[in-house]
Amino acid sequence: MKRNLYIVASLAVLLTGRAAAQAPAQAPVPAPAQDDVEINVGSNPGVQQNAAAPTASAAEIVALREQLAGIEARLVAAEARADDREAAQHEAEAREQEREKALEEQKGLLRKLAKLGVSISGYVQVQYGQNQLSQDELQQGGSPYNQDRFAVRRGRLRINGRWKYVRTDFELDASTTRGPTASVRRASISGVLPSRTEGELPYVMLTAGLTEIPLGLELQQGQDDILFLERTIGSLAFFPGPVDTGVRLDAAYGPLRLQAAVMNGAPVDDRAGGPSAVDPTRAPDFVVRVGADAWAHDLFRVAGGVSFLSGKGFSPGSDATKPVLQWNDLDADGAIGAGELVSVAGRGAIPSQTFKRWAVGADLSFELKTKAGLTRLYGELIIAENLDRALYVADPGAEGIDFRELTWYVAAIQDITSYGFVGARYDVYDPNSDLFDSRRGRVVPKDASIRTISPIVGVRWPGVGRFTFEYDLVRDKLARDVRGVPKDIANNQWTLRLQGQF
C-alpha cells in the first residue's frame, strides 16, 4: 500500500510540473529600478523568486485532482485483485498440502498394512456392448430383449492377508449386469507350507471357504491373465461362476502340480444378481487336476494338465396336478363350440431325484518371450455328461436320457510391447451330442453346437488399467428357415470395456 502511495505522489508531482509547463506565458514584468529595489538581507531571500514562479489555473487543478483520484482508485482496485489472487493461491496451496497429507497418511497406512502382511487392491470394469438379438421388446415373463447398454461388469475389492504359514482372501463384487447388486466372490483361509526358494509356489496349501474350482485352465485364469472379456460358452454353461465353497488342496514340487477339491457343486454365478447358489444335494463334487508348469531358458514356458470331476446333479421333479377341463377356442368366436372342450387328466407328483454327472478335461499352454512382447498359445478340451447348469440345463430326471456334452477352444494372444495386445479365440460347445430332430416325419441327427470366433485388440497402462475391444462372431443353429430347417440366428455382438485397477 505504501508503494502505491509513493507512486501516486510521484504522479502528482509530475502532473503538477506538467501543468506548470503548459500554463500560458505572461508578459514579462519590467525589472524595477535599482534605486527602487529594497534589499532585505535579514528576511527571506526567496520571496521575490517564488512570487515570479508560474502557477496553474483553478480548472487545471480540479482536473489534475480528478485524474489523481482515478489513478488512486485503479491502484486500489488492482491491489485488491492482487490480494484476492494471493488469497486464492494460498487457499489452493493449503488444499494441495491437505491432499498431499491425506495421501501420505493413506500411503503410511498401506505401508503399515503391508508390514502386517495385509494388502488392498481391486479393479472396476465399465463397458458398452451391442448384440444383434437386441429389441425394444420383453420376453415371456417380462425380461427385456435389449442388450445394447452400458454396464458395470465387475467392481472388485480385494483384501488379502499373506503370512508365512497362513493366508486369507476376501473379495467383494458390485455389478449392474442384472441390476445394481453386490455380493461376496471370495472368502477363504489357507494353511501354507512354504517353499524353501523365495518366489516359488508353496509345497502345500490347504484352503477352506469360497475359492476357485481347480478344473482345467480357463476356469482358474484371473482377469489379468484371460484378457478376453468373458470365458467361453462351454465354460460358462458348465460353471456359471469360477468359485464354489469347499476345501481345496494345492501342492507343487518343481514343475509338478497337483490340485484336489471337495466342493458343494453349486458354483456362484459370476454375473451378480443371479439365482442363489445353494446346493440341493448332500453329495459333494470331487475335482482333481494333475499337471506340470516349467520355464525353459527363461524365455519359453510350457504348462498343461488333465482334470477330472465327479458329482451329483439334482432333478426337482414336479408337483401333483388336479384333473381340469380346458377350453380351446379354435375358431376365436368367444363361444364354446364342438370339439373345443378338452379334459386334462390329473397327474401325480414326480419326486425329486439325483443323477450322476462327470467331466474329463485336458489343457495345454505355451508362452514365448520375445522383444515384441509375450506370445501365448493355449487350448482346452472337456468331455462331460449332465454338467450343463446354465445354458441348456441337463435334467435326465425330466428327459429320461443322459446328455453327453463337449466343449473345446484354442486361443492366441500377442503382446505388442507392454502397452498393447491383439488376439483371437475359437471355441465350440455341443450341449447334446445325442440330439435328434424330426424332418418330414423322419428322425435325423441334429447339430446344436455353438461356434464362436472372438478377435480382440487392446491397449494397457501397466499398473493402471486397459481398454479392450472384442467382437464375437457366433455361429449356431438356433433359428429355422421357412422350411423349418435349422439355420444360423443373427446374434453376433461386440463390446468395448475399460478396466481400471488399484
Describe this structure in a few short sentences.
This protein has 502 residues and is of the alpha+beta class.
Secondary-structure blueprint of this entry?
Blueprint: H1 2-22, H2 47-51, H3 58-115, E1 118-131, E2 149-162, E3 166-175, E4 181-193, E5 204-212, H4 223-226, H5 233-238, E6 243-253, E7 256-263, E8 285-296, E9 300-315, E10 324-327, E11 341-344, E12 353-369, E13 374-385, H6 396-399, E14 404-416, E15 420-430, E16 436-439, E17 442-445, E18 450-461, E19 465-475, E20 479-480, E21 486-487, E22 493-501
Description:
There is one protein chain. The protein has 502 residues and is an alpha+beta fold. The chain folds into 2 domains: 1-19 and 53-116; 117-316 and 352-501, Porin, CATH 2.40.160. The chain has helices spanning 2-22, 47-51, 58-115, 223-226, 233-238, 396-399; strands spanning 118-131, 149-162, 166-175, 181-193, 204-212, 243-253, 256-263, 285-296, 300-315, 324-327, 341-344, 353-369, 374-385, 404-416, 420-430, 436-439, 442-445, 450-461, 465-475, 479-480, 486-487, 493-501. The strands form 4 sheets. The chain has a 16-stranded antiparallel beta barrel with strand order 1-2-3-4-5-6-7-8-9-12-13-14-15-18-19-22. A two-stranded antiparallel sheet has the order 10-11. The radius of gyration is 43 Å and the shape is extended. The chain starts with a helix and ends with a strand.
What's the CATH superfamily of the largest domain, by name? Answer: Porin
Number of domains: 2
- Which architecture name of the largest domain does CATH use? Beta Barrel
Count of strand segments? 22
Give the helices and strands as they follow along the chain.
HHHEEEEEHHEEEEEEEEHEEEEEEEEE
> How far apart are the first and last residues' alpha carbons, in Å?
51 Å
Mean pLDDT over the residues: 84
Q: How helix-rich are the residues, as a percent range?
A: 10-25%
